[in-house]
Write a structure and sequence with these properties.
The complex is a heterodimer of chains A (293) and B (286). Chain A is mostly helical and 293 residues long. Chain A contains 12 helices and 2 strands; from the N terminus they run αββααααααααααα. Classes of the chains: A mainly alpha (293), B mainly alpha (286).
């Protein structure tokens, strides 16, 4: 896609792109380059000098059981957040799509949590499940179930997944709802006339037609779970107990800023960079092809 | 739609209402928590209806930063942090819109040397979330002497190309005849930019503004690292820091009042500008 008609001159356009290029250079390219560069060095314990170690930081990471555990944690966490928030979003969107009147009201009532910062969502859920005073944990205790996410890693994981997925339902709802509204009603009516039940119509007509959106949401939600959930993790568990909720991005932060292990933190950044790169390429490949069945 | 059965109709509403309750529940609890006393909270269970201390708690949080003597209480008035967040969010939204409008205009309406290169350089910034290059960026900001400053909070977060791409996509849909006519009338590029392009981009501007404002307001990790001065804290990170590790001694009514205040501006923006927001969101990611 290119415009056929354009203005003449080259000084003005160069001037126009300069601000963005300067900001990108100072706050994007230089720091990113710095992260790659640092990943090849190992600072001595006193931070006085650094030694070039090549790929040793990476080799160490890939044999470090804590790092590998964090990888596994990230995968479990991202899959759980993605699947649960997408399923609930799709369910609510399918219901709203059945309404002839009033779906707009539900849209308003369902989308506003998108505006809530993950860290604030974390604080809300943290209180509900607080071991001593939380509302939900108090009722759970009444039912004979002991809740303490400060000690129990599975409970901690459940809680961070819940808080992260909660804020994400709105986004998935919005995209699924738009996708459902775009499906021509005549197709569904034709299927109904042929005797297909609601469930049958949903599975064999609606779901395939939604596949482009579903695929797109999968990628976007995974990226969200990888990076934007930092606030949730930090407020609720700080990665604990015993690193059971330390996702990769949280480890970059805790190794770099808390433990001051800069070489390792930088190497982790580079690994994450490669992962995002792969996800982005997948996403753009998809946009080119527009996945249609 | 296809079926018109009564029960199916009510089941649909029932399902949606359950969804709405799930969405509202934590926020409702926080609201209730912001209207009761500390004792109501630390001796569970919390009542499910608001108490009488709404004005006290909010006034306390807004102007005094909560009562003294609690761990995590910084005694910085919450109104100050709301202001910091507002400056940061507006700065990021407006800054991003300005630089990306200019560069999108250049990419679409001009042919110039290194256009492809510049385009790709900006394009790549889409790929890397801030969290990944956090430490080196922190160092850059520190070296520029921008820690604890609004500039330090704003500029690093402007370096992303989302808005540039949205504007570029939109400009591509504007018919060529528009430029042709303008050029024939002897219209200079910047005149075209200000008098034609910006006015017809109004809806897109609003959409991008909403999305960028939310992005700025809800930042957490960045302001946490870049600000050590309590007076420069943003509201989102402040709410987090009000809860000490042994979380029993937080002053919960203040925490809840601050949390509600932290979510109020973005929620109001999202609801009042829903049309633009939905449009912007659906287009930005496609």
């Amino acid at each position: 896609m290119e415009k056929r008609v354009f203005f003449k001159g080259w000084k003005l356009p160069l001037l126009l792109v300069t601000p963005q290029l300067i900001i990108s250079a100072v706050f994007f390219f230089y720091p990113s380059g710095q992260a790659i560069w640092n990943s090849l060095f190992l600072p001595d314990p006193f931070g006085l000098k650094t030694e070039f170690v090549g790929l040793d930081n990476f080799r160490f990471l890939l044999s470090d059981s804590y790092y590998l555990a964090s990888f596994k944690t990230t995968i479990i966490f991202s899959v759980a957040v993605t699947i649960s928030s997408m399923l609930i979003g799709l369910y609510l969107a399918a219901l709203a799509d059945r309404l002839i009147k009033g779906s707009g009201v539900y849209q308003t009532l369902l989308i506003w949590p998108y505006a809530i910062a993950p860290a604030i969502a974390g604080v809300l859920w943290l209180f509900l499940f607080n071991g001593n005073i939380g509302l939900v944990s108090w009722y759970l205790k009444g039912l004979g179930y002991e809740w303490n996410h400060n000690l129990n890693g599975d409970q901690a994981m459940f809680l961070v997944v819940l808080a992260s997925a909660w804020g994400r339902i709105s986004y998935n709802f919005l995209f699924f709802f738009a996708g459902l509204q775009a499906i021509p009603k005549s197709i569904l009516e034709a299927a109904a006339i042929d005797g297909a039940s609601f469930w049958k119509r949903f599975m064999s007509v609606v779901i395939p037609l939604l596949s482009p959106i579903t695929f797109f949401l999968l990628v976007v939600n995974i990226v969200y779970a990888f990076f934007d959930t930092f606030g949730v993790i930090h407020t609720i568990t700080s990665g604990g107990p015993e690193q059971s909720t330390t996702i990769l991005v949280y480890k970059v932060f805790s190794d770099g800023f808390v433990s001051q292990d800069l070489g390792s933190s930088a190497a982790q950044s580079v690994i994450l960079l490669v992962l995002v790169g792969i996800l982005t390429v997948i996403q753009f490949k998809y946009i080119e092809r527009k996945v249609h069945y | 739609m296809v079926e018109k059965k009564k029960t199916a109709y009510w089941m649909t509403h029932l399902g949606l209402i359950c969804g709405v309750i799930l969405i509202f529940f934590p926020v409702w609890v926080a609201f209730v928590g912001s209207t009761v006393s500390q004792d109501d909270i630390i001796y569970p269970p919390l009542p499910l209806l608001p108490g009488p201390y709404l004005i006290d708690n909010y006034a306390n949080a807004l102007f005094k930063g909560g009562p003294e003597g609690y761990a995590g209480a910084s005694q910085v008035p919450v109104i100050r942090m709301l202001m910091n967040s507002a400056i940061m969010a507006f700065g990021i939204a407006i800054g991003k819109i300005i630089i990306s409008l200019l560069s999108a205009f250049a990419f679409v309406y001009f042919r110039f040397p290194f256009r492809k290169t510049a385009f790709w350089l900006i394009f790549i910034t889409l790929m890397l979330p801030v969290e990944v290059r956090i430490y080196p960026t922190y160092e850059v900001v520190a070296n520029l002497g921008l820690l604890n400053s609004y500039a330090g909070l704003i500029f690093p977060l402007i370096a992303s190309a989302t808005a540039t791409f949205l504007f570029r996509q939109f400009f591509m849909t504007i018919p060529d005849e528009m430029v042709e006519a303008a050029r024939m009338d002897g219209c200079k590029p910047m005149r075209f930019f200000f008098d034609i392009l910006i006015p017809i981009s109004k809806t897109n501007l609003a959409a991008i503004f909403v999305i960028m404002f939310l992005f700025g307001w809800n930042q957490f990790l960045y302001p946490m690292l870049l600000t050590t001065d309590p007076n420069m804290k943003t509201i989102v990170m402040a709410v987090d820091s009000m809860i000490p590790a042994g979380d029993d001694y937080a002053h919960w009514p203040t925490v809840f009042a601050s949390a509600i205040l932290a979510m109020l501006p973005p929620v109001i923006i999202i609801i009042s500008m829903q049309k633009f927001f939905v449009k912007g969101l659906l287009e930005s990611d496609k």
